[in-house]
Specification:
five-stranded parallel beta sheet; Pdz3 Domain; 25% helix
Length: 474
Amino acid sequence: MKRKDGERKASLKMYDLEEKEEKDLGYINGYEISADQKKMLVLQDRSFAIIDLPRAQIKIEDKLDLSNMEMKLNRREEWNQIFNECWRQMKYFFYDPNMHGVDWEAIKLRYQPLAQAVNHRADLTYVIGEMVGELNIGHTYVGGGDVPKLEKLKVGRLGAQFIRDPKTRFYKITEILKGQNWDKSLSSPLTEIGVNVKEGDYIIAINGKPTNTMTDMYEALLNTVGKQVTLKVNTKPEEKGSREVVVVPIENEQSLHYYNWVQNNIEKVNKATDGKVGYIHVPDMGARGLNEFVKHFYPQLRKKALIIDVRSNGGGNVSAMLIERLKREIAMVGIARNTIPSPDPEALILGPKVCLIDEFSASDGDIFPYRFRKANLGKLIGKRTWGGVTGIRGSLPLVDGGFLMKPEFAIYSVDGKEWIIEGHGVEPDIYVDNDPAKEFAGIDEQLNKAIEVILEELKTKERELPSPPPNKDK
């Protein structure tokens, strides 16, 4: 239904079996009918009321006063119920009715005394986690619930790396992370218009407090996220000649570090292959991963080859969509007057492809390289993937708001002979393990190997579009 203000709202309907007609009961947010079907609890615009079971437009006259509503909670009984519910959910929803050969009744008897002895919700979570761990499978996450919420003070970040000058103790900017400042999630404070700070400059003071007197400069950025902060900066580690700029610190720099890592990888591949090879990193198999794939796939369609990177992929459920795009085959070539030939379908990369994987390629990030190999798209390079692919649909509700994820659907080979990937992962064709120290220094041996392999494959697998045939005479 549409209200007077033009906003669409849900309307509750009933069907009268005696009069054989539908009746509109009006706009409400939610309802619950009593067991005897005589009363109904309704929610409308954040107000609750108990009314007789309606047969006409609902009119809330006596709103419930919830200001003094209290609930007496027996945590011991609640925890026992949660434990039993988690055990029961696994029993009836786990994909394998044989419970991987585990005597699930005996497991309950083993862990129940531990659950009855806990004195904190976190301890109960631990016990349930150990219990479901007996099934030896991934995606058995348990957590949440009625636990104390700790208020955290946020420390502002400037999107940069610093070292302390050993003599003056002022902070030198060694790296400024690039951003896309039109996107709030990729805002890099020191690159905003008007700041004009560069790498090599020094932070002399923050909000009037000299940084050389601080134990750590971040103590001055406590609780400054989203707020204006005045920095005093200079090209030298001294007060004389300094100037003030105003910046707005961000909460964390993770998205900036990821963005810069991807851009650096694109630049490395581009430089090492003379612009012939494209690079795409897919961080997960969800909305974010799709966005990253689309953002980098289409601008690189005319590349001669592709490195697709699913290292540290967090999983999701869209790997099949990406593989369908990557395995597209050219059917014909199109051309218009005063243009150059283009493949049809157009959104494809003709040349060879390789895929980077590691031990953090997880869930649908496991499945993607399996599909990649099955489709004969190219070599897998890196380390064996995580090995957790038995899927979850989400948690059934627990009474205190906690959650338990139940592996409900598994995958097996097309010949029906074996369960695949779960507990093992996908093996690479070419094993490369990054040295942590080298990786921290910016040397990515897995990526280097992918570049080496794709350049070698380009020698024999590079494909060019044919020139158009002679023009027709008639």
